[in-house]
Write a structure and sequence with these properties.
By secondary structure, the protein is mainly alpha-helical. The chain is built from 5 helices and 2 strands. It has a single domain, classed as D-Maltodextrin-Binding Protein, domain 2, CATH 3.40.190. 39% of the residues lie in helices and 7% in strands.
């Protein structure tokens, strides 16, 4: 980040960076730009796509590129002593609802209760 100079919220500044995202098309990074700095057609230089947040966090902390992570992951990494720089958006944080869908006539597996327990903990 130091080689790019002081943080600027411009298309040119962000176009110089490298990114990691969860899937092709970079939907989360693009959504962050649309929501926070009103940039819709920014050129994004992607170094990697990886499906899970643990992989994204490892790529970011190893210096591979910038990416989008949930607040709880950023907080945990910072609490563990990782020096992260977070770009503060110019609008309220994006929040994605998670829905767990199941058929009410079927018995729920034990994994359902485990997932629900984890999701309730994240809400606190």
């Amino acid at each position: 980040m130091k080689k790019f100079g002081p943080h600027k919220y411009t298309t040119n500044y962000f176009s110089k960076m490298h990114y990691v995202d969860y899937k092709a098309g970079e939907p989360l990074v693009r959504n962050w730009f649309r929501h926070h700095i009103h940039r819709h057609n920014i050129h994004i230089r992607v170094r990697a796509h990886i499906f899970n947040v643990q992989g994204i966090s490892k790529f970011i902390t190893s210096g591979l590129g910038l990416g989008v992570m949930p607040d709880y992951v950023v907080s945990k990494l910072q609490k563990d002593g990782v020096d992260l720089q977070a770009f503060e958006g110019k609008r309220a944080p994006l929040k994605n609802d998670i829905c767990l869908i199941f058929l009410p006539l079927k018995d729920r597996p034990l994994s359902h209760d485990a997932v629900m327990g984890c999701l309730r903990q994240l809400q606190k």
